[in-house]
Amino acid sequence: MGNVILIGFMGCGKSTVGLRLSYRLRRTIIDTDKEIEKEENRTISEIFAEDGEAYFRDRETAILRKLKDSANNQIISVGGGLPVREENRALLHELGQVFYLCAEGWTIYERVKDDKTRPLLQVDDPLKKIETLIKERDPYYRAAADAVVTVDGKSFPQILDEIEELVNEKERTVLAEG
Ligand code: S3P
Questions:
Q1: For residue 109, which phi and psi values (nearest 5 degrees)?
Q2: Helix (H, G, I), strand (E, B) or coil at 135
């Protein structure tokens, strides 16, 4: 409870924003992808290749259930596809304040085009795939989020200022409500 959660498409900046936010707010950071890789002792690409996407999605839900019992006042950065599952959105909501880092397809493409670690983007036309997936997932991200933070054309300090302000606002409300 009381966690700050970052959701959004691959390459929207969740990991970088999460790390910088953890310094600013003096909270530790957890990344669901890294937790899964650690527990499985293999990379996301290996998990997709050996056991398929459905297996990976079940691992994501399992990690969230575990975090629900253990994570307090942390920064949690989650994989891009995690909020698509309804149960996961409910778990995110219980875990804390959810921020959707919203980016245009082109911004994402520029950041991930040379990246080989994301199995879903190893296709002939990654930009098209990115745009299709964003369109499909955007409603889920919005449904899961307490706040939408647009990242296109913004610097990291700008994005961090926006999130920090909303986190502080929430803390003031919680304190006022006792
Ligand atoms: C995925 C996003 C990845 C990782 C996996 C699947 C997705 O995480 O969980 O490759 O379905 O969007 P990042 O968003 O951290 O890249």
A1: -55, -45
A2: helix
Tallying the residues shown for the chain, one arrives at 178
**Ligand 1: residue whose CA is nearest its atom 15:** 79
| Spatial CA neighbour of 8 closest among 170, 167, 173, 152 | 152
Per-residue pLDDT tens digits for 132-168? 999 999 999 999 999 999 999 999 999 999 999 999 9
8: left (phi over 0), alpha (psi -120 to 50) or beta: left
The pTM score is 0.97
Per-residue pLDDT band for 70 (boundaries 50, 70, 90) equals very high
pLDDT tens-digit series, residues 45-65: 999 999 999 999 999 999 999
pLDDT digits (tens, 9 = 90+) for 93-111: 999 999 999 999 999 999 9
Query: Cα 116 to chain center, whole Å?
Result: 19
Pocket test for ligand 1, best of 43, 118, 131 (most atoms within 8 A of CB): 118
Runs of H (alpha helix) within 5-104: 14-25, 32-40, 44-70, 86-95
Closest CA to 145 of 88, 104, 89, 81: 89
Q: Are 115 and 9 in contact (CB under 8 A)?
A: no
Atom of ligand 1 nearest to the CA of 36: 9
